[in-house]
Amino acid sequence: MMIGRVIVCCLLFSLNAAAQEQSATQEHVTTDSVGTEKSESSLMVRLREVQQYLDDKARGKVDPLYIEVPDKPWRVILRYKENVVDVDYSQSVDFPEYNEHADWELCFTPPVASSVGFWVGYRGTGFSYSKSLTKNAGRYYSISSTGAKYGFNFRLRRFNTQDAEFNAEDRNLDTGVGSKESTTVNMPAPVWIRSTYINGYYVFNGRRYSQAAAYNQSVIQRHSAGSLLLGATWYQSSFDYDDIKNFVYMIIGHGIYRAKVHQANIGVGYGYNWVPLRGLVVNVMAMPTISVYDRVKAYKYETNYKMAPIEAVDDYGDWNRETKTWANGKTHKPLLMADVNNGQFDYWEVEPEVIYSMMHFNLDLRLGIAYNWSNYFIGAQAQYNNFNYKSDNCKVNIFDAYARLSFGVRL
Hints:
With 411 residues, the protein is mainly beta. 12% of the residues lie in helices and 59% in strands. The strands form five sheets. It has a ten-stranded antiparallel barrel with strand order 4-5-9-10-12-13-14-20-21-22. Strands 1-2 form a two-stranded antiparallel ribbon. A two-stranded antiparallel ribbon has the order 3-11. A hairpin with a 2-residue loop joins strand 21 and strand 22.
């Protein structure tokens, strides 16, 4: 959109090259209140022409009865934001010797990431900077841009944690009788979780409905209106506990120590701006999406231990790393007989497994409130996303949400 505007402006300037060439050698002269003459360069004239062109384009795309484009295009916004992430990683394990099945789940919830910062921009485009107020909450980056017909969001999150909640359920396959257990655990080594979220949407009723009115206040919604929205999302993340200290979780997780997911989603949603009184707007948007591309790449380790009942007599002897067998000729030893400290424990990488899974449903929910008076405005916004993917007996659910308060002024 911005590139198109620049190209149009350049064409306009080239068509008036002769006039500009003549004016470039002259100076526009104005007189201030005390009669002092001031000169204005042709560059400043051109910049004002570009600004006027962009302002005219912005006003020409909306219905002024529903959407007001403020005369002052620049905005400076102070923001306070809180971001929360919850990651649930689950696996299932079978014990053929006991005819039992076990399901277990690890839940990771890092501290709420609080930050303060500012946003500076012209109309719907600008840049932001924020500083985290929370220790051990990871790093979080975001970029956004909106127009009359489109919106764009980019988020990047990276964190590690050793705090987790472990939930397990054992069940006998013959009797169906089982037991459940839930406990808080401290992972022996940090677990790294990274996620990238890119979202874009198209507004069908862009002349009368604006997402920007509630989320970055580049325009003001004057009357209530709604619109269908077409959206697309690209999401990728990785889940990594590649450390020998976490070997128990690797084994019960079928050797998986890292999983990467790439997911593309499309969806159709609806947004509505409610204007109960002048200057106040409340926005609600919901967009269910379906994944059209879903790839999971699981990196695995093979070990000389396995999930099996402990034996009465340990006759395994020493482990031979060259032949990958114990002294008694067996290739695996029960996990409950593992002794990592004596050097008998060994593990090695195997070929990663790439799985293209079935379609999944995800959800994008947003809520925004803004109030405008004079050249000032305040706002509150919240967004919730849920991503899920699975392959065979591995399943990961990620819940990502934020809440934000803002105060701004138009210049």
